[in-house]
């Protein structure tokens, strides 16, 4: 891997949100903090990259996420 983008994001899936108190009122928070990895690799290392993420990324909690593998049709560098 020669580069990747790591973003702190918020989202939700099948896992439930949680409630928080604010000024005495209880609110349901549906969006949970998550980390999003974006990695572009050649096809010959894609499977190894997926295996490495599966082995190292899990927190053991529900909602650890999914890995999407797609073909990149075109990349345009902005300079």
TrEMBL record:
GO molecular function, one term: ATP binding
One of the record's GO cellular component terms: cytosol
Domain of life: Bacteria
Residues modified to O-UMP-tyrosine: 27
SUPFAM superfamilies tied to this protein: GlnB-like (SSF54913)
Keywords: Nucleotide-binding, Phosphoprotein, Transcription, Transcription regulation
GO terms (BP aspect): regulation of nitrogen utilization
InterPro entries the UniProt entry points to: N-reg_PII, N-reg_PII-like_a/b, N-reg_PII/ATP_PRibTrfase_C, N-reg_PII_CS, N-reg_PII_urydylation_site
PANTHER family: NITROGEN REGULATORY PROTEIN P-II, NITROGEN REGULATORY PROTEIN P-II HOMOLOG
Subunit description: Homotrimer.
Similarity field: Belongs to the P(II) protein family.
Protein known as: P-II family nitrogen regulator
């Amino acid at each position: 891997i020669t580069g990747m983008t790591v973003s702190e994001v918020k989202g939700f899936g099948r896992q439930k949100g949680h409630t928080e108190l604010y000024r005495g009122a209880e609110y349901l928070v549906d969006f949970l903090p998550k980390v999003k990895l974006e990695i572009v690799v050649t096809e010959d290392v894609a499977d190894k990259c997926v295996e490495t993420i599966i082995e190292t990324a899990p927190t053991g909690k529900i909602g650890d996420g999914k890995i999407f593998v797609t073909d990149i049709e075109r990349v345009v560098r902005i300079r």
